[in-house]
Amino acid sequence: MRLLLISNSTNAGEPYLRYPLPRIGEFLRGVREVAFVPYAAVTFSYAEYERRVAERFAELGIRIRSVHRAADPRRMIRNAEAICVGGGNTFALTRKMQEQGLMEAIRRRLKADIPYVGWSAGSNVCCPTICTTNDMPIVEPSSFRAIGAVKFQINPHYLDANPAGHAGETREQRILEYVAANPRRWVVGLREGCMLRLEGERLELIGERPMRLFRKGAEPIEVHAGEDLSFLL
Known about the structure:
alpha/beta, 7-stranded mixed β-sheet, 4-stranded mixed β-sheet, 7 helices, globular
């Protein structure tokens, strides 16, 4: 399986997709066209999302074709050289993918080693469920089940911050609630500017910041780029 799961599309003060673009280009080397899933867009159109991503991927010499334009989106996925799922609202993305049968279509393509790139919500839907997203459930999917390409959960945009005057739960407390209720799952707190790359049986963290790992009954741990992640597989 070949996955590039990115925490966030854009670092503060940078153009859209600037920081991950070299890694995306390296990961998709030799790919000419990508099937793009824009369904996490809510406050702007799928066409606008397609345009934004297409402009950036054109720098890599890669053409974007959005599934929202296809008469048969599943067929587009079945014939795709590579698949890209953009960020936005994870619940909106999940419901539309479920309605169109894209979860299963993508799962089958990933088993054939078709490369997959996702950021934020697009990383969430590669997990067993979408239960560790940060997003508000603005729509109701048929279930929380997702593609299940990896066995662990991802919390993208992971933050350590506890702002002054904030009396609510921190991100870590929310994740600890999840692992208490789901003791068999690891959760990866993937900080911004970082990504996970899976090639076959090799999983690596890319980025200058460590990721934070959670599991019931264990203290959260920090893992840095270059450290062994095989236990997550």
